[in-house]
Structure formats: C-alpha cells, structure tokens
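Tokens in:
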C-alpha cells in the first residue's frame, strides 16, 4: 500500500501552505561539522510548468566526478504531463549558491519518490540511506528543507534552509503490517516535501511527505522504502496472464545506476513456504523456500519488466508466494520482499483464466532492529533464515589459489574417468594428453598419426573415432594402452560424431554416421540392438544421419544424448533417452545453441532457451525463453548447474544454482580470462562450446576454465559450500 493510500481518510497537505506549531521540547544538539554536511546536501527545488509550477525540497544521495542524484517526492515534480523546467539549488540563499538544471531520472509513484539528475563536478557529500529503518517512537529527529518556498524570504532571492526538531510519535503500517510512514511531531510544512529527516547522528530516517491540516502532525516516508530506488528494485507486480501451466507478470523496474544484471521470479505454494525466513542483516530478504517455479524477468525500453513463469496449478491450493531474485553487479544475489498471491478461483470451473481474480499483497518482515546511529553499516542480525540445504543468501565463495597452464594449440577437450580426467586433443602436432584434475598433473600422452580424430570417454576407456579408417578404437584411459577390440563400420559409412557418458561403464557408445546410428558395447566394441519407442521416433534417427555436421553430447550416466546441427538453421533441439533397450526421442525445430544433458539426464542445459526438463514423452522448458549473453552448464560432480554471466565492461561471473530448486547457491567473480571477443555463436560450430570451457568440480573444490585462445587453462581452488 502506498503512503497516500494509508492516510486516504485524512486531509493531507502535500504542497498547500499551512503553518504548524508545536510545544517546546528539549533535544540533544548535532555537532557543527555534521550539521554543515547535512545542510550542504539539502537542496531547494523549483518546478516551472505554468499553472502547475511549485517548489519543494530534496537531498543529494549520490555523486561522482561529473553528476549528482537528488531524491525528492514525486508530487514535488509532478506536472500532470506538462513540460517543465526543473531547477535544483545547492546552498540556497547563500552567496555561494549553485543553481543547476535537473532532469527526472526515475519515479516511484507508489511510494511518492523521485530521483533527479544534475551535472556538476563539485558537489557536497551525499546523505547516506540505510537499508533498515525500524526507528522507535520518541526518536529525536531533525527536519531539513525549505518550508513555504520563497514566501519566507526577505528579498527576491532563493530561501535559506530551515532546520527544525521533532520526534517520531507513531509508526504507520498497512494491512500487511509493512511500515509505510513515520508520524512526526514537528515542523513539517508545505515546502518541506521531499526534504530529509535525520537522526541526531545524521542518519536518514525518512523523507518529508505530508501534513494533516490544522494539526501538528506530519509524515515521512521511511528510509527503507527509499533505499531500493538507489540500490535497484523491481516492484509493482501485476498478473497479466493466468493459466494452469503458465502465469505472466508485469512490473516496474527502478534501477537508475544499472546495478541489476538480471532478475528472476520464483512462485512457491503456501504449503512449501518457510515464513520464518525474513530480513537479513543488510535489510534485504532471504529465500522463503527451497523449491519453486522460476522464470526470468526481461525489460522493455520503457522500463516495464515482464516475466513468464511455467508453473503447475495445484488443485485446492489457491495461495502462493512470489519472490524476486536480483543479481546485482556490485554485490551478487539479493532477494526482494515476497508477495502473497491469492487466486479467487471460480468453484464452478476447472480453472478460471480471469486474471482479475488474482490479488498480490505484501507480507510482514520480522526480526530487524534499528540501525546503530554512529555506524550505519553495523546492524543487528535477523533471525536464522536458512534450511540445511539452502543458504540464507547466495554468497561469493573465496578463491584460494590460481594456477595457469600454458599448452600448444588444442582443438578439443573431453571429460573421462568419472570426471577425474581432462583429455586434450592437440591440433598443430597430433597428440592426446591426459590431465589428472585431482593431482593437478599431466599423467599420460599419446602421439597420433592423423589429425581428423573424434574423442569420447567413460570411466575406464577412451574411444577414438578414425574417419579415414572407418573404425573406432578403444584405449585404457589410465595408461592410453590400445585394446585389441575395435568397432569397424560397415563399408561406405562415415563417422560424424561419437559420445558416451564420462561417468558410465556399461552404457553404450553412441556413434552417428552418415547412414545410421550405432550403439556400441564399450566392453566388447560390438553393436547393441535398441528398439525405437514408435515409428515416429524412429524417424528421429535422421536428425543425426542426414545433417552434414552435428555436435553430440551425453549425460554423465550415458543414458541421455543431445545433438544439434552446426550448418543448418534452425540448428534443432534433439534428445535421445535410453530406457531398458528402448530409444525415446524428442525433437524441436528451433535453435537453442548448444545442448548439454545434466549428469543424470533429467535436464538439458542450453545457451538460448534456458533449461529443458526431459521425460520419455516430451520436453518441457523451464525458465525464460532467452538467456541473452548467458550460458547454462551442468555441474560435473554435484547436483548443481552453472550460469555464466557475461558483461561487456567487466569480467564474467559464475553463478551456481541448485538443480532441483533452480535457485542460486553461490557465485565466483572475475573470470578475467573468459571474456571473449565474440559473445555468441548462434549455431555453435566450434567443438569447444561453453560447456567444455567452464567446469566446476565440487569433489575436488576446483573450477577449471579454458580461455578462447585454446592454448591453456586456468585452475582455481575454491571453497565450495558443503550443504
């Protein structure tokens, strides 16, 4: 609920003159340096828009070398659509006053707040906005601003600042128990609107908002409602589409400093929500559940945000909770205040598609304490938030050691030995070398007689496809000794791709040729017979045979295979699953970039389409339709997956997600070696796509990255959370 709504039954005076007087009260004094800093940061604002002209107050909340950001009330600058000239005056009424033109940077109409931008190189120190604002009744306050505008000046000049004292006499909450306003006993008059109200320690308590006519009661918007405008937030959610399998939201993105890298929204049934998880120590929230349906939030050019979330409506459960998860460029993951979503379903219909039956309301935060005045960043901890298997906040994990390995140019890298080995195939001099990840050392190598060689490996064997010889040989992976058994292709068949599960023993080696698909027993190197689930699925074999060039991937257990074309558009989404001698196939005639099955084949990870959930019958997409400039990659030795986030101006960031919750666990910054010259390759023609370049080994506590030069790799030793 907005500040205006909570007081709609009272007569408010935002900008209409009306003097208020209070009885005398004894207060502590603010020291002179602090007082001068606050005065310098408080500004007089004039708005010239014809009959909608007026004035108010504001204060500096941010500065850099060339500009500053001013916070004020939205109603101070609201002109009903008329074009206006907005001016901001620093040191108003003093001989050294500075008058600057201002532009509207952002608005939050619900909370009646706005941000203005001014250009100037030498601006005073800003007033800091704390994240937590649970100040108590009887708290002494200082009220800064320009009451009555120029009406109190003794000449035609701009008015001098007025500073008065008061107390917090009440805390006003909405129907969900959210703090919406501080009631102030003090001199808040028309013209004070938008000005700062601070504690004797100089901490912002709130923003002057309104008065009640013919009383000595004023109101301030709490600093905690102002803080998200600076930090970045997505709010004012509205349901715009409702169906049993999908729900769509529209919201408002407020992010003046472009701090939000990306945002997601999670929907959780009330029965799975842990409402004991509330505000953490910095004023942000924790996750309210360990599971949920997630969709990514995208923006349009007007600042509106949209999210499509695949979900499963649970019959009889009409209360859900939604929570927004932001990934901030400067501090990682931040959870926002959850909203309660109530669906007033028509009992006479199986499901009511009327979105007007859905209501969204805020919920109560508990466990926070008022900030320490002398140390705004030091605040008491909130309650214990997290369950055993999920952190209260996704944390940045420390990197203890970094090793860089230089190598000759290589063309391909695969996993083998159950995720113990990285196997490199070098280009300039045909050679295979095996790197032991656990020991961090090269352990074996093999000289080759040909350049055009394909590789695949399971727990015990390395398979080499030799197209010119039309056969596949098998080597002991630990020693690279060639076994006596081999698979000879029928005459005239050409090998196109091979793949096998790196953590499997008996799962078949899949061999795609220009004629057919072979499933090879790794122990005997003989062909195994599989039947297709139906005639339609049998035709999916053509996706592997008729396309000239393909990429092929296998799940770690060797039961799920994916493939895509590298020379056709669309490149296709093709999935094969093996179940008790039967092949189940699915295909989508669209492009998702690379396709990589997770270790157990339940999910397929892509570049352009997020995640797919795999079943024998069909593929279902999870999350957003477009992960622009980001890559989803399965983890190697754990139930996690990776999200590589690229940024043109900063090194990539690696975020790690829980595979069942689809919620973030932790992240690793500054992958400086992984900033590519070209972010995307739509068809992923290169053998080394991102799933082979970013490898997280939970068991070994190591992150291995392979830069785009293909002439080395980097190993980071990291402390991965055990839960």
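Residues out:
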């Amino acid at each position: 609920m907005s500040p205006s709504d909570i007081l709609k039954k009272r007569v408010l005076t935002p900008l209409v003159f009306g003097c208020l007087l209070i009885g005398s009260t004894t207060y502590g004094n603010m020291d002179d340096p602090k007082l001068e800093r606050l005065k310098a940061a408080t500004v007089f604002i004039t708005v010239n828009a014809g009959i909608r002209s007026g004035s108010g107050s504001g204060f500096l909340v941010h500065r850099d070398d060339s500009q500053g950001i001013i916070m004020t009330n939205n109603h101070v600058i609201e002109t009903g659509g008329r074009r206006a000239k907005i001016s901001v005056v620093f040191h108003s009424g003093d001989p050294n006053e500075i008058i600057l033109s201002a532009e509207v940077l952002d608005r939050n109409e619900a909370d009646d707040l706005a941000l203005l931008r001014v250009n100037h190189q030498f601006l005073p120190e800003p007033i800091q906005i704390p994240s937590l604002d649970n100040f108590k009744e009887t708290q002494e306050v200082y009220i800064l601003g320009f009451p009555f505008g120029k009406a109190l000046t003794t000449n035609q000049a701009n008015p001098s600042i007025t500073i008065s004292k008061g107390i917090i006499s009440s805390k006003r909450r909405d129907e969900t128990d959210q703090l919406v306003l501080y009631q102030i006993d003090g001199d808040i008059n028309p013209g004070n609107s938008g000005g700062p109200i601070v504690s004797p320690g100089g901490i912002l308590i709130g923003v002057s908002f309104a008065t009640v006519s013919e009383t000595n009661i004023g109101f301030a918007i709490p600093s905690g409602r102002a803080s998200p405008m600076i930090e970045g937030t997505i709010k004012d959610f509205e349901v715009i589409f409702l169906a049993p399998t999908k729900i769509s939201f529209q919201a408002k993105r407020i992010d003046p400093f472009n701090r939000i890298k990306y945002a997601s929204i999670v929907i959780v049934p009330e029965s799975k929500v842990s409402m004991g998880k509330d505000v953490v120590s910095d004023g942000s929230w924790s996750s309210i559940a360990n599971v949920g349906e997630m969709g990514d939030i995208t923006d349009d050019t007007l600042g509106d945000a949209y999210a499509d979330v695949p979900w499963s409506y649970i019959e009889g459960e009409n209360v859900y909770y939604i929570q927004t998860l932001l990934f901030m460029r400067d501090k990682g993951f931040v959870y926002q205040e959850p909203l309660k979503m109530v669906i007033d379903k028509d009992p006479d219909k199986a499901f009511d598609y009327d979105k007007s039956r859905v209501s969204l309301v805020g919920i109560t935060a508990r466990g926070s304490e008022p900030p320490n005045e002398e140390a705004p960043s030091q605040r008491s901890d909130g309650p214990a938030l997290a369950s055993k298997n999920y952190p209260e906040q996704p944390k940045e994990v420390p990197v203890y050691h970094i090793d860089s390995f230089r190598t000759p140019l290589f063309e391909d890298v695969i996993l083998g030995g159950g995720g113990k080995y990285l196997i490199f195939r070098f280009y300039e001099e045909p050679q295979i070398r095996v790197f032991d990840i656990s020991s961090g050392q090269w352990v074996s190598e093999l000289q080759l007689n040909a350049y055009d060689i394909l590789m695949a490996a399971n727990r015990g064997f390395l398979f080499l496809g030799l197209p010119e010889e039309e056969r596949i040989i098998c080597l002991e992976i630990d020693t690279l000794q060639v076994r006596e058994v081999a698979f000879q292709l029928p005459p005239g068949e050409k090998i196109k791709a091979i793949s096998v599960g790196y953590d499997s023993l008996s799962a078949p080696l899949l061999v795609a040729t220009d004629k057919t698909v072979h499933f090879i027993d790794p122990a005997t190197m003989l062909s195994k017979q599989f039947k297709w689930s139906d005639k339609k699925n049998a035709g999916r074999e053509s996706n592997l045979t008729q396309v000239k060039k393909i990429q092929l991937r296998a799940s770690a257990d060797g039961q799920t295979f994916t493939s895509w074309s590298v020379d056709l558009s669309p490149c296709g989404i093709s999935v094969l699953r093996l179940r008790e001698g039967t092949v189940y196939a699915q295909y989508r005639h669209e492009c998702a970039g690379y396709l990589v099955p997770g270790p157990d084949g339940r999910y397929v990870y892509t570049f352009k389409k997020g995640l797919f959930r795999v079943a024998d019958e069909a593929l279902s997409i999870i999350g957003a339709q477009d992960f622009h400039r980001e890559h989803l990659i399965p983890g190697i030795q754990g139930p996690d997956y990776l999200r590589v986030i690229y940024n043109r101006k900063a090194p990539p960031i690696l975020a790690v997600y829980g595979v069942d919750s689809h919620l973030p666990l932790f992240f690793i910054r500054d992958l400086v070696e992984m900033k590519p010259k070209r972010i995307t390759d739509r068809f992923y023609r290169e053998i080394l796509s991102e799933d082979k370049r970013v490898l997280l080994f939970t068991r070994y506590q190591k992150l291995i990255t392979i830069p785009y030069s293909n002439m080395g790799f980097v190993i980071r030793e990291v402390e991965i959370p055990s839960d």
